[in-house]
Amino acid sequence: MTDNSGTYGIKGLPRPKDAVTRHPDGGIPYIENLPVRYEISVLASSTDPLLRKQWTLFVLALEKFKMKPVSEKLSYFQVAGIHGYPEGAWDNAPPPKQDLKNPKKGDQPYGGYCNHNGLNFPTWHRPYMALFEQCVWDNMDDVINHWVEEHKLDQDKAELALWNEAKDTWRMQYWDWARQQSYNEDFAYPQVLVQGPDEDGNPRAFGDMLKGKRDYNIEDDPVKHNPAPPRDKEDVAWIRQKAQAKTNKDFYLKWNPGTLADSVNRMFSPKYNTTWGQFASTKWTYEGYGNSMNGFLSLEYIHNNVHNIVGGSDFATGVGHMSDVPVAAFDPIFWLHHTQIDRLLSIWQCLYPKLWWDQKEPTRPGEVNVPDDTEDDYLYPFHDKDNGGPVTDVWIARKCRDWTVFNYQYDDLMDLSQKALNAKGNLDEPRFQKLLQAYIHNTYPCTEHLLRDIKDNRHVHIPAGLTPDVPNIDDNSWKDYIINVRYDRYALGGQSYTINFYLGGPTDEAVTHFEPQNFVGSVYTFGGGSRKTLDSCANCKTQADAGVLSCAQVPLTIQLLHHTIDCTQVTVLRGVGQPNHVVAPKVRTSELQTFSVAAADISVSESPAVSTNGTNGTNGSAGGAPVTLPPVYNAQPYEALPEITNNKYFGLQHDGTYMGGR
Questions:
Q1: Which helix (H) or strand (E) holds 141?
Q2: DSSP structural state of residue 123
Q3: pTM
């Protein structure tokens, strides 16, 4: 039985004795011989004997971890429960619910450990992933000990040593949902994660509930939704959209992945986000005082949409765990997804090490805003030492800014580092950053890749609206369109919802044609269940009370190019008029606050050759072919296009106001 007393220190897995630090204090981390976190498909399909052993140990250890009694602090149930349900205290940290009449030091104003829509969103999850990694590793040790006791594995010293080596060099896998994969369906779930239906075509059950789980008495939390509108003849467009939801699933699946890759590419492009706050969080700051026209695309927004893609949002038939904050961590894919989020955070830190709490995010004029997170805020309930102080010996963002403090690196960052070493074997940071930029651009296809394909292979005419206004600009250019969105994450009592965007609809009229082929993107809020999320989450309740808004961005250009490739027009419903039931929602309960469309001319350039000679290369040497770097999206400022959104509910109007929004 695990000891539930004291605090559990999250320290990372043991560092190998031959690991050597090859970077200066405060520099981009490079530690020679540090074990790496692999993309899950790489590890699962590897033929390398050591990696095969790691995969075997991971699968068996995860199963053992899941079967631990729920009363144990280091059980899967309790570790997953940190993220939401069952809303209990963990590891002697301040409990999620406090007596507000008699507050004590360390008490949280509303309770709950969730950290979303704030500047510590990515950093709070970093020690969380390290905790999960540590728990799986401990169970690997138990698996090997079981083999020794039951199967006399220790009689073969060499074989036992290989299994221990596999354990000691294993690190948690990540799932790169934005990368084109090698399995049959590009941008789909890794095959190793997919369990097919039974012989009758029915979904397989999760299995029996663990003993003691029922004691927590977590109530069902059904999603409430409005009934379908009356079937007036003028409402055909609305009814048809609901009826087509299932038949058009393939369309939505094909849309999402390309946008994920493009969004990741944009997020890492130079100056697309210019502050830590813009990169880290969906929290909105007053336009003109914080967010620029292209400062709406954050890591958290991309993260939210992946939760929606995995869990689904067909509320009429039910959604998966990943779509709902309180239960998301109970889906094992959560850990692969958030290890990927930590990887993207690490990449950002490599590219822009100075953009780390670089400036205080401004408050909205005339309003008292919720104070922003700081890098010294306690990341409850994650303790940094065994048997330490439950309130004060807690991880903070500043202490885990260097992710290698947990003794892991990512496979691709390690590979690129080894190609950017100087003569002394230390990391050449400028060369590494240039290689990393090129790697990102090649790994995550963006608008430029599709545009090149159209010009080189498809021989399709590009409409004037997608070509730059600037004369004599080079071929690697296009006119880029984006939708900037501002919304209230807590409008429905904290319940998650999706805002979908469609092309089409009469100009200057408050109507849109909800045809699936017109669908161009969505924003998922990733909130909680409908029952009590705001009352049980400190961060959520505080922000909701203060009226804090969120922001997101939907890139449009790829969708417009696909219409060009397919030679399709934006579908206009024939024979139906404007639905009778379209009315302006009340501002106080509106989910969508405002949105606008903007455009700018974008150009891509090639960088001079960069050395990829590997270790001991000459500092600053050149070799190989020129590399294409990510587009620079701020060379020309984005200009708002109110003519597209004028007279649309919550859209930007010609006079600079928003119809019905705030």
A1: helix 121-151
A2: H
A3: 0.84
